[in-house]
Write a structure and sequence with these properties.
Blueprint (H helix, E strand, L loop, with lengths): L2 H4 L6 E4 L9 E2 L2 H15 L4 E4 L22 H10 L5
Antiparallel strand pairs: 1-2, 1-3
Length: about 90
């Protein structure tokens, strides 16, 4: 459920050209990214940046809740709340 938070991603580098176009590929090491940046700079006679990923944003799973549709609370309801967390509004 929370795999994208529990697994530490491997570091990677990307090459960025502010004027657009290529590239969109991740590089596993700095040297490979530098070689790609040099290739693109020569091809387009443009400024090219080598960027290292330092973190990421990820969407957390929404909370799960139990709500009885009719009638009052009973012992089974309390068990579900204790197991899965409080009812959030």
């Amino acid at each position: 459920m929370w795999d994208h938070f529990e697994q530490e991603p491997a570091p990677f580098w990307m090459v960025y050209r502010p004027s657009g176009g290529e590239p969109t590929m991740q590089h596993e090491d700095f040297d490979t990214a530098m070689a790609e940046a040099a290739r693109i700079a020569r091809k387009h006679a443009d400024r090219v940046y080598v960027l290292k990923a330092v973190g990421y944003m990820a969407t957390a799973c929404p909370p799960v809740m139990w709500r009885r549709m009719y009638g009052g609370e009973n012992a089974e309801d309390r068990e579900y709340v204790e197991t899965y967390g409080p009812d959030e509004q």
